[in-house]
UniProtKB/TrEMBL annotation, chain A:
InterPro entries: PsdUridine_synth_cat_dom_sf (IPR020103), PsdUridine_synth_N (IPR002501), Trub2 (IPR039048). CDD domains: PseudoU_synth_hTruB2_like. GO terms for biological process: mRNA pseudouridine synthesis; positive regulation of mitochondrial translation; RNA processing. One of its GO terms (cellular component) is ribonucleoprotein granule. Belongs to the pseudouridine synthase TruB family. Gene3D superfamilies: Pseudouridine synthase. Pfam families: TruB_N. PANTHER family: PSEUDOURIDINE SYNTHASE-RELATED, PSEUDOURIDYLATE SYNTHASE TRUB2, MITOCHONDRIAL. Residues 83-225 form the Pseudouridine synthase II N-terminal domain. It comes from Crocodylus porosus (Saltwater crocodile). This is TruB pseudouridine synthase family member 2. GO terms for molecular function: RNA binding; tRNA pseudouridine(55) synthase activity.
TrEMBL record, chain B:
This is Transcription termination factor 3, mitochondrial. Belongs to the mTERF family. One of its GO terms (cellular component) is cytosol. GO terms for molecular function: transcription cis-regulatory region binding. It comes from Crocodylus porosus.
Length: 316, 443
């Protein structure tokens, strides 16, 4: 069975994504090379030998069927030495979560996934009372503040403001008049989003947990970086007349890959990856078609128009 | 004329001994070649001939130069080490003759062939086995008795028509089917695909003769006590041992014996550190002295340390010094503690410095395990930091992270890292594996 397709792994925090990709590649290669190999070719060698002939023993060349030694595993080396493993939307070193990888032909679908501009879900943990230079808890401490005055209502008010301003930007970058039927239909299907590059956009944000000084947010966004999300936490802290650092950024969904589909570090082997690819194959296909549908439809319409023009030319 | 002479010379030149000048001429005469001068030459062929870098070879007989204005000294029909007056023409002619020879060998009737057949078969050029025996020594210069001598059927049948070997190659795959040495090494378990990546190793193996060069080393290794199934991996790592002098090797083993290493200890050290016997006695002595002095160990303990991790002796000493400094200065272990740790897990001496400090930082500062417990359970330093983190966080989440032996429900650090995750879940964390997996996805 060929290994081609998309699957998701759970990237642990503190490990860079290239290391995750390489680890997956190494384990896949080990798995593939441990499979049953093609038997060596056979070739005919003329070996000198003694044959009983008419006049006693005769020295002749005896054709012998021998396996080709050049096909021996110790001579030709492992069958697979490299594998195309591509990475989907990146995660930086400190963040953890769902990380999409493509194997072989599946790498093409990564481009499709990029072009589909899916939204992603994150859970972000914050801590009030501190501010650091890189907005994370391991950075250099810049200031310490009080946070006793903050309550849940204040936090949610700020979150609503953030969501409102981002929603306005979403309409602007989606390149579509929000008062039209088309925009309505897209919004109903949940496909209303910018289809080209845009600044980071937050489509939804809510507070999951509030236990000062800690709090946890769930953010649905697109075109983001993990550092942008940390900055959001920092800014929330400033808006609340305090300061906040981000202790964890964790991606719980990337497009149609959810957390329960992601493979843990101990499951990165050929068998599990094959199963994951097999399971997600149908979803990948339908989701990509659905999201890219309207892009392709326009291209398809153009093709039909061209065909019609050619036909009319021919009939004339 | 010179052409024909050269052809004969080429056919007769260097190979195992069944190449008789007479044979070649016999063929030439049989196929109707005008043979005006009977010349046979045994050329000196370079030892590396069937392998690798072609060397310019000198012609053995001076006449070649006179009649041709150049010479062809190599027995390969397509290859000339020195410029030849005839340019490409004799190349084709050689192939033609080769084809004739092949045709005669395979049909048995000599008179049928004439020059018209040249065009049909000349493309192949794969008929002459021009391979000298893989040998160190240049072939002795043997002049055939008479060029006109007819060869018998028995001799003719020994002329094997095989495709030619490439003169240069990036891999040993091209030669393994035809080289006795390589074949035997493969059957021994040597991974040629790895050996050929080592510097000069492929060249070295091709030049060796199994009976003369390899056998004695293998027997020596068997005497030392290397297991049969270890020979392959050993030679894969260190094919250079074939270049060593047997006496020197024996001296080194004798030195190890004089240092009171047991027979099994020597066998294990040699098979686990294949380069050990490449080191001279002085160097080995220096290195043993280094470990004894740096760690302040007794002789017996040094022996234990080195026989547990023999690659300490063959590896670089600089990282060992650095690791000891890291343990002493950065991690703050006392010298006797370092001794204790190094004897328990010698791997710490060759570990990555960064990994060492990161692990210690987490275990000591986050998990709060003091130095004396770490000294008793140094296995923590051997395991991966991610694993320690995951397990510690799970235990913290469950409220079971208790590493102090004086308190109840104590969890030993050794057990925390060494057991597989199923055992960890059931015995230490007392939770289901599914819960552990779910927890890992929240980190």
């Amino acid at each position: 069975m060929a290994v081609h397709g998309l699957f998701a792994v759970y990237k642990p925090g503190g490990v860079g994504w290239p290391r995750v990709r390489d680890a997956v590649e190494t384990r896949l290669l080990a798995g593939l090379n441990s499979l049953k190999q093609r038997p060596p070719r056979q070739h005919v060698r003329f070996l000198p030998g003694v044959v009983e002939g008419e006049a006693g023993k005769e020295l002749t060349l005896v054709p012998t069927y021998l396996p080709v030694l050049a096909d021996h595993l110790l001579v030709k080396g492992p069958r697979f030495t490299r594998l195309k493993v591509g990475a989907g939307h990146r995660l930086d070193v400190k963040s953890s979560g769902v990380f999409v990888l493509g194997v072989g032909q599946g790498c093409r679908m990564l481009t499709d996934m990029y072009n589909a501009h899916f939204t992603k879900d994150y859970t972000v943990r914050g801590l009030f009372g501190k501010a650091t230079d890189d907005f994370s808890d391991t950075g250099k401490l810049i200031e310490k503040t009080t946070f006793d005055h903050i309550n849940r209502e204040m936090l949610e008010k700020i979150l609503a403001v953030i969501q409102g301003s981002n929603h306005k930007a979403l309409g602007r970058y989606a390149n579509i008049d929000l008062k039209t039927q088309e925009a309505y239909e897209l919004a109903v299907k949940g496909l209303l989003r910018p289809m080209q590059k845009s600044p980071p956009l937050i489509t939804a944000i809510r507070c999951l947990e509030f236990a000062p000084p800690e709090f946890q947010l769930e953010i649905r966004c697109l075109h983001e970086t993990q550092q942008y999300l940390r900055k959001i936490v920092h800014e929330i802290g400033l808006e609340l007349k305090s300061a906040a650092v981000c202790t964890q950024v964790r991606r719980t969904r990337d497009g149609f890959f959810t957390l329960d589909k992601a493979l843990l570090r101990t499951h990165w082997d050929l068998e599990n990856i094959q199963k994951a690819i097999q399971d997600s194959r149908l979803t990948v296909k339908t989701e990509l078609e659905k999201s890219l549908g309207y892009l392709e439809r326009t291209a398809y319409d153009e093709l039909i128009e061209m065909d019609q023009v050619e036909e009319s030319d021919a009939s004339r | 004329m010179w052409l024909a002479a050269q052809l004969c010379g080429q056919l007769c030149s260097g190979s195992e001994g069944w190449w008789r000048g007479g044979g070649a001429l016999h063929v030439a005469a049989a196929v109707g070649l005008p043979v005006p001068v009977v010349m046979a030459a045994a050329c000196k062929t370079s030892p590396c001939h069937h392998g690798t870098m072609p060397k310019a070879v000198q012609p053995a007989a001076g006449w070649q130069r006179q009649c041709g204005g150049g010479w062809v000294a190599h027995s390969h029909p397509c290859y000339h080490s020195t410029p030849c007056g005839g340019h490409g023409c004799h190349h084709i002619a050689t192939m033609w003759l080769a084809a004739q020879l092949w045709a005669r060998l395979h049909s048995g009737s000599a008179g049928r062939f004439c020059t018209q057949q040249t065009s049909q078969v000349s493309g192949s050029g794969c008929c002459i086995r021009a391979l000298p025996a893989p040998s160190h020594h240049p072939l002795p210069l043997v002049l055939p008795l008479s060029a006109l001598e007819e060869i018998s059927e028995e001799e003719a049948v020994q002329i094997v028509a095989e495709p030619l070997l490439p003169f240069e190659s990036f891999t040993l795959r091209d030669y393994v089917d035809r080289s006795e040495t390589l074949t035997k090494l493969v059957h021994l378990g040597v991974d040629l695909s790895k050996v050929e990546k080592l510097r000069n190793a492929g060249q070295l193996l091709l030049r060796l003769d199994f009976e003369n060069d390899i056998k004695k080393i293998l027997l020596f290794l068997k005497d030392v006590g290397v297991e049969d199934n270890q020979l392959g991996p050993f030679l894969t790592k260190n094919p250079y041992i074939f270049t060593e002098d047997l006496e020197a090797l024996e001296t080194r083993v004798a030195y190890l014996k004089s240092k009171k290493f047991g027979k099994e200890a020597i066998a294990r050290m040699v098979s686990r550190a294949p380069f050990l016997l490449m080191f001279s006695v002085e160097r080995l002595d220096n290195r043993l002295g280094f470990f004894q002095k740096e760690l302040g160990l007794s002789v017996q303990k040094t022996r234990d340390l080195v026989s547990r991790l023999p690659r300490l002796l063959t590896g670089s000493l600089e990282p060992v010094k650095e690791n000891l400094a890291v343990c002493r200065i950065e991690l703050g272990f006392r010298p006797n503690e370092i001794q204790h740790i190094a004897l328990k897990i010698p791997k710490i001496l060759t570990a990555n410095k960064k990994k060492l400090t990161e692990t210690f930082d987490y275990v000591h500062n986050v998990m709060g395990i003091p130095h004396h417990i770490l000294t008793n359970f140094p296995q923590v330093f051997n395991s991966s930091l991610l694993k320690i983190k995951e397990r510690h966080m799970f235990l913290t989440f469950l409220g079971r992270a208790q590493y102090d032996p004086r308190q109840p429900s104590y969890i030993s650090v050794d057990k925390l890292v060494s057991v597989p995750s199923e055992v960890f879940c059931t015995e230490i964390a007392r939770a289901s594996v599914q819960d552990f997996m779910k927890f890992l996805k929240t980190l």
